[in-house]
Amino acid sequence: MIRGFKDEGIVLARRNYSEADRILVLYTKNCGKLSMIAKGVRKPSSRKRASIEMFSKINFQAATGRGLDILTETEILDSFDEIRSNLPKVSVAYFFCEVVGKITRDDERNASLYSLLIDYLGKLKTSLNLRTLRAEFTKDALVLSGFWPEGKPLDDPDQALESVTEKKINSIRVGKKLTS
């Protein structure tokens, strides 16, 4: 008996696996951060191919597998096309996804953080001041995750983020250059 589940999520990361598959990292509304395999999506005839692009908001259905869950169905809710046509905005969207991926653990549920990510991707569509948006997102994400006290000012969000994750955030460097 195969058990499955449905949820809504944002694609945080993806990497190629074998000849035709991809491993995805999704941040979901009800399950938190999940890694799953999308079988056959690298084939030209795959119907799921377009819906699993980076920072796409999707409804999905997955089957519980032995190791990784298996993505079985997808539906695009928002592909954020307004962001994809602007390189500085794309770099900030990658930054948002990388931050959420680094400050959360697998299966850690945080509906507020999910809503924050959706809200900021929506703001990114029309925002002109990307540097401020980036800093606000970092602070809000740290507060919602419990890594920074609410109401306390944060002078250098990037430094606070690196101390929390104990790693460099790869997209910080690119985001700083493009948003300055």
Automatic annotation (TrEMBL):
Gene Ontology annotations for the cellular component aspect, listed alphabetically: bacterial nucleoid
Entry keyword Repeat: no
Assigned keywords, A-Z: DNA damage, DNA recombination, DNA repair
Cross-referenced Gene3D superfamilies: Nucleic acid-binding proteins (2.40.50.140)
GO biological process: DNA recombination; double-strand break repair
InterPro entries membership: ARFGAP/RecO, DNA_rep/recomb_RecO_N, NA-bd_OB-fold, RecO
Superkingdom: Bacteria
Database matches in Pfam families: RecO_C, RecO_N
Stretches assigned to the DNA replication/recombination mediator RecO N-terminal domain: 5-80
UniProt key word DNA damage: yes
Protein name: DNA repair protein RecO
Annotated organism of origin: Candidatus Woesebacteria bacterium RIFCSPLOWO2_01_FULL_44_14
